[in-house]
Write a structure and sequence with these properties.
The complex is a heterodimer. By secondary structure, chain A is α/β, with parallel strands linked by helices. Chain A has two domains: 176 residues, Aconitase, domain 4 (Alpha-Beta Barrel), CATH 3.20.19; 30 residues. Helix content of chain A is 32%, strand content 14%. In chain A, strands 4-3-2-1-5-6-7 form a seven-stranded mixed β-sheet. In chain A, a hairpin with a 4-residue loop joins strand 5 and strand 6. Chain B is built from 16 helices and 19 strands. The termini of chain B are far apart. The complex binds iron/sulfur cluster. The site of iron/sulfur cluster (SF4) has 13 residues of chain B, from loops.
Chain lengths: 212, 468
C-alpha cells in the first residue's frame, strides 16, 4: 500500500448527498476478475452519455461535458469533496478500488457509509470527516477558484487552504498509523513475521504431519 | 481449570499471537481455492509483489463454473471461462496444486478436500466459500472467508479472528432408518432457525450424530452455515480416523501414528462449558422437505404446507405469505401432493458416494415420471463418479431416465448452464432454497438424496418413511 504522508492536490467537488456505490461503479463492472482498471468507469453513468459495459473502449465514448470530472479544471484532482453519506449501498470493495484507480487519495465529506468507510481505509484512501458547514464553505471556495488546491498533512491532522487557513481533522490513531506507514492488513500481519515463524517451529514439533 | 470444548482446543492450538483485544492471529493449516473468489486475491499479491507464505497447504480446483456435459467443447460463457482460465494461470504462476477441469480428481472443493485427505482432524481449514463448514465433520475448525481474507491467508498463512461463542447441539437417541443426515440438519434448522447459530461455533454431538457416517457428518456440518453458524463440527472418533487413513494427503508411517494419537483428544472435555446448549430427540425426526424460500421453512414430508393465517406474528405471517407466493403453493396442501418439474441430485451437501448409493436404492427399478422434465445426478468429484460407475450406479440412474453428469456445483447455484426456468419446481439435494438460487424464478425444495430420487420416480414427494 502506498504511504500517505502529505498531499497537495486539486480538489474535485461532487455536489450531492447519498452518492451510492452503484453510482461510484455501476454493477455491470463487478463481474471483472480484477481489482485494478476500474478508474475509467468511475461514476460511469454520470461521466458518459452512453451506457457503459465491460470491455468497451472508454476513450471512444462520448463524455458528458456537464460532469465535474470531465471539466479540464479538475483534471488532476486527487482530493474528492463530497456531501453526506458518501459511499452508501453495497459492501463490495469495487467502489474504493475505482476511486483509487482513478487517482483519488483522499475524500472530504460530512459523513460516509460505514462499510465504505472501512473499505476505503483498507485500500489506502484517507477519508476526512468535517463539519457540514466547513464542507459547505469548501464547496464554495472550490467552485469559485479554478485550480483550487488543498494540502493535507496527515501526521499533523491538518488541512491547509490556499488562503492560509488551517482546518484540523480527527482520524483514528490505528488507521493513521497504517496510512502513514503504508501498511495494509497483510502488511500489518507481516510485521509479526517472527511470531508466525516461531509458531511454525513449535507446531512442527507437535504436529509434524502438518508440515510434510 | 474448567474443561475445554473441541473448539477451544483447536483454537488454542492455532493462536500465533493473542492481540489482547478479543482478537487473535490464527494459523491456517489448509487453504482450499476455487475460481470465483480467488482472482482478486492473487492480483493483490501480484500488485504488492508478495508470494504465498506456504504453497504446499493450498489446493485449488474449478467447480462453480464448470460445465457438466461435454467438457471437450470448453466453457461457452465468457465470464465463466475467464474465471476458470484465471485460476489455471494463477496456480501455475504461484506454484499451487490445482486439479484442473480435465483432471479425474477435479470436483466440488468441499468434496475433494476430504476425499484427498487434505482435510484432517484438528486442522484449521478455510476457503473463500461459506460452505467450508463442511470440513468440520472431521473435528476440524473450518469456515468460509472473503476475498481479502483469501489474499491474507495466501500471504501470511494467518487470519485475524475474533473467537466465537460456543454452542452444543446434542441430538440424543437413535434416528429412524429412513432419517438421513440431511433430514437431521433440516430438522435442526427448522427448530433453531437460520439465525439460531449466528455468532457461534457449533459442535454437533449425541448418539444420533455419533451414529452418522463421516459423509453424513459432512452433510450436517455443510449446512451449519444455513443455521447461521460460520463453523460446525463433530468430534473425531474411530470412524474419522478410519476414513482418513490411506488417503493421498493423509499422514504416513511415523507421522500417522503420532497424528492418530493426537486426534483422539479432539473431543470436548466432559466438564467443558458451552455458551449455549440445544438438545433434541432423534426419535422425533422424520424425512423433511422445505416448502419456502429459507432453509428454516421446512416440514415433515407427511405434513401439509403451513398456513400463514395461523401465525400470530405479523412479520412472520407476511414472510410466509411471500414465500408461498414465490413458491406457487397454497397453504394446507399436503407435501406429498406437490409435483416437481426437475430433480437435482448433487452439490457439496449431497454428492458423495453414499448419497448416490442412497438415491440409487430409492429408485428401486422405477422410471423417472413422464411429468418430470429433467432428473440429473451430478457427482461431487471425478473420483466419486468413477467409484459410482465401478459399482454400476450410473446404469441404475441412466436406465431410470436420469442424466449422469460430470462433477461440479451445477444446479446448486446455476452459474453454469444447469438451471431452472422461471416457475419450475425442483426437488434438490443442495443447501439453499433462496429466491432465484437455482435460476431466476426457480422454486427449490431441499430434500435428501433418497427423497429426491423417490420424487423423480413418483413425480411428486412421497413419504419414504411409510414405504419402509
Ligand atoms: S455445491 Fe453449491 S453450495 Fe456447494 S460450493 Fe458449490 S455452489 Fe456452493
Amino acid at each position: 500500500m502506498e504511504k500517505f504522508e502529505k498531499l497537495t492536490a486539486i480538489v474535485a467537488p461532487i455536489d450531492r448527498p447519498n452518492v451510492d456505490t452503484d453510482a461510484i461503479i455501476p454493477k455491470q463492472f463487478l463481474k471483472s476478475i480484477k481489482r485494478t482498471g476500474f478508474g475509467p468507469n468511475l461514476f460511469d453513468e454520470w461521466r458518459y452519455l452512453d451506457h457503459g459495459e465491460p470491455g468497451m473502449d472508454n476513450s471512444k465514448r462520448k463524455l458528458n461535458p456537464e460532469f465535474v470530472l470531465n471539466q479540464s479544471r479538475y483534471k488532476d484532482a486527487k482530493i474528492l469533496l463530497a456531501r453526506d453519506n458518501f459511499g452508501c449501498g453495497s459492501s463490495r470493495e469495487h467502489a474504493p478500488w475505482a476511486l483509487q484507480d482513478y487517482g483519488f487519495r483522499a475524500i472530504i465529506a460530512p459523513s460516509y457509509a460505514d462499510i465504505f468507510f472501512n473499505n476505503s481505509f483498507k485500500n489506502g484512501i484517507l477519508l476526512i470527516i468535517l463539519d457540514a458547514a466547513i464542507v459547505d464553505r469548501l464547496f464554495k471556495a472550490v467552485t469559485a477558484q479554478v485550480g483550487y488546491q488543498l494540502t493535507i498533512d496527515l501526521a499533523a491532522n491538518m488541512i491547509k487552504t490556499p488562503e492560509g487557513e488551517t482546518i484540523s481533522f480527527e482520524v483514528d490513531e490505528f488507521r493513521k498509523h497504517r496510512l502513514l506507514n503504508g501498511l495494509d492488513d497483510i502488511g500489518l500481519t507481516l510485521q509479526q513475521t517472527d511470531d508466525i515463524k516461531a509458531y511454525e517451529v513449535r507446531r512442527r514439533q507437535e504436529a509434524p504431519w502438518l508440515f510434510s | 481449570m474448567a474443561g475445554r470444548t473441541l473448539y477451544d482446543k483447536i483454537w488454542d492450538a492455532h493462536v500465533v499471537r493473542d492481540n489482547g483485544d478479543g482478537t487473535a492471529l490464527i494459523y491456517i493449516d489448509r487453504h482450499l481455492v476455487h475460481e470465483v473468489t480467488s482472482p482478486q486475491a492473487f492480483e493483490g499479491l501480484r500488485l504488492a509483489g508478495r508470494k504465498p507464505w506456504r504453497v504446499d497447504v493450498n489446493l485449488a480446483t474449478p467447480d462453480h463454473n464448470v460445465p457438466t456435459t461435454d467438457r471437450s467443447k470448453g466453457i461457452a460463457d465468457p465470464v465463466s471461462r475467464t474465471q476458470v482460465e484465471t485460476l489455471d494461470q494463477n496456480c501455475r504462476e504461484f506454484g499451487i496444486t490445482e486439479f484442473k477441469m480435465e483432471d479425474l480428481r477435479q470436483g466440488i472443493v468441499h468434496v475433494i478436500g476430504p476425499e484427498q485427505g487434505a482435510t484432517l482432524p484438528g486442522m484449521t481449514v478455510v476457503c473463500g466459500d461459506s460452505h467450508t463448514s463442511t470440513h468440520g465433520a472431521f473435528g476440524a475448525l473450518a469456515f468460509g472467508i472473503g476475498t481479502s481474507e483469501v489474499e491474507h491467508v495466501l500471504a501470511t498463512q494467518c487470519l485475524v479472528q475474533k473467537k466465537s461463542r460456543s454452542m452444543l447441539i446434542r441430538v440424543d437417541r437413535k434416528a429412524g432408518p429412513s432419517v438421513t443426515a440431511k433430514d437431521i440438519v433440516l430438522a435442526i434448522i427448522g427448530k433453531i432457525g437460520t439465525a439460531g447459530g449466528t455468532g457461534y461455533a457449533v459442535e454437533f454431538a449425541g448418539e444420533a450424530i455419533r451414529d452418522l457416517s463421516i459423509e453424513g457428518r459432512m452433510t450436517l456440518c455443510n449446512m451449519a452455515i444455513e443455521a447461521g453458524a460460520r463453523a460446525g463440527m463433530v468430534a473425531a472418533d474411530q470412524k474419522t480416523i478410519d476414513y482418513v487413513r490411506g488417503r493421498p494427503y493423509a499422514p504416513k508411517d511415523m507421522h500417522w501414528a503420532m497424528a492418530e494419537g493426537a486426534w483422539r483428544d479432539l473431543v470436548s472435555d466432559a466438564d467443558a462449558k458451552f455458551d449455549a446448549v440445544v438438545t433434541l430427540d432423534a426419535t422425533t425426526f422424520v424425512p423433511q422437505v422445505t416448502w419456502g424460500t429459507s432453509p428454516e421453512m421446512v416440514v415433515a414430508v407427511g405434513a401439509r404446507v403451513p398456513d400463514p393465517a395461523r401465525e400470530s406474528d405479523p412479520v412472520k405471517r407476511d414472510g410466509m405469505q411471500k414465500a408461498l407466493d414465490y413458491m406457487g403453493l397454497k397453504a394446507n396442501t399436503p407435501i406429498t401432493s406437490i409435483a416437481v418439474d426437475k430433480v437435482f441430485i448433487g452439490s457439496c451437501t449431497n454428492s458423495r458416494i453414499e448419497d448416490l448409493r442412497a438415491a440409487a436404492v430409492a429408485i428401486k427399478g422405477g422410471k423417472v415420471a413422464s411429468t418430470v422434465k429433467l432428473a440429473m445426478v451430478v457427482p461431487g468429484s471425478g473420483l466419486v463418479k468413477q467409484q459410482a460407475e465401478q459399482e454400476g450406479l450410473d446404469k441404475i440412474f441412466l436406465e431410470a431416465g436420469f442424466e449422469w453428469r460430470d462433477p461440479g456445483c451445477s444446479m446448486c447455484l446455476a452459474m453454469n448452464a444447469d438451471r431452472l426456468e422461471p416457475g419450475e419446481r425442483c426437488a434438490s439435494t443442495s443447501n439453499r432454497n433462496f429466491e432465484g438460487r437455482q435460476g431466476q424464478g426457480g422454486r427449490t425444495h431441499l430434500v435428501s438424496p433418497a427423497m429426491a430420487a423417490a420424487a423423480a420416480i413418483a413425480g411428486h414427494f412421497i413419504d419414504i418413511g411409510k414405504l419402509g
